[in-house]
Amino acid sequence: MNFIKKYASYAFLSLSVFPLSVFADWELNLPRGVTPFSQEIYDLHMYVLWIMCAIGLVVFGAMFYSILVHRKSRGAKAANWHHSTKVEIVWTVIPFVILIAVAVPATRSLIMMEDVGDADMTIKVTGYQWKWHYDYIGTEVDFFSTIEEKSNTARRRGSNIDPFEVEHYLRDVDNYLVVPTNKKIRFLTTAGDVIHAWWVPALGWKRDAIPGFINESWAFIKEPGVYRGQCAELCGKDHGFMPIVVRAVPEGEYIAWVEEQTQAKALASDQRNSNNLLATTRTDQ
């Protein structure tokens, strides 16, 4: 027992002098995200992780204790019993309780993920090779979003553009998906050619975009900001060049943006009609 106490003291001494600042930024962990669901998933992940750590501590603690204390060099003799009803009940009940403790919050998260009702707005997301189309249901706003031109040029051989000098290289687009904060947004995800996947890590979910099918999901973004993602399903030679950028803005700014987009689309339509009319008139002459 003194042997164990000695090495335990060494372990605690090592932890006391080890700089805790190295744990300040756990980049290998899940991002907490900016939606209630992403934060729910993060909390569930950490909850299960600590349960796993506790199980590992008990199992490996018992194993190393047995190795050190009951080793042959100390004259330990192996037990000769082979059955214990009490022990079997314990090691059956404890895992059952642990599974229930994990299953309940996991089920709650799954139900939360599928709850697309009572949405304040709906956006249809359609994947194409190799771009995204966004349609704001109930408005006149719809547009394509493709990789930003400078990134697209820099990725090509012989462009003479250093990718490290391009801000958000391969992660920026020409048209952002603009959404309001503090509104429940329903997403309808599909595809027009092959299977894609719409994924923004900060939102906490990924949805496959499948031709002929519509997958539903939702987001409630609390904080304004720009959140980046990408296609997460291998969809062809330019799969790696289908970035996604979501820009969350306050409701007033979003309403102004919708009005601006609607007016711009109406102006473009009028201009197109005028050009067609002019072309028809010249043909008749």
List keywords for this structure.
285 residues, alpha+beta, Helix Hairpins, Immunoglobulin-like, 2 domains, five-stranded mixed beta sheet, 5 helices, 10 strands
Write up this protein.
The chain is α+β, with helices and mostly antiparallel strands and 285 residues long. The protein folds into 2 domains: 26-72 and 86-115, Helix Hairpins (Orthogonal Bundle), CATH 1.10.287; 121-268, Cupredoxins -  blue copper proteins (Immunoglobulin-like), CATH 2.60.40. It is built from 5 helices and 10 strands. Helix 2 runs antiparallel to helix 3. The radius of gyration is 29 Å and the shape is elongated. It starts with a helix and ends with a helix. The model is unreliable at 20-24 (pLDDT under 50).
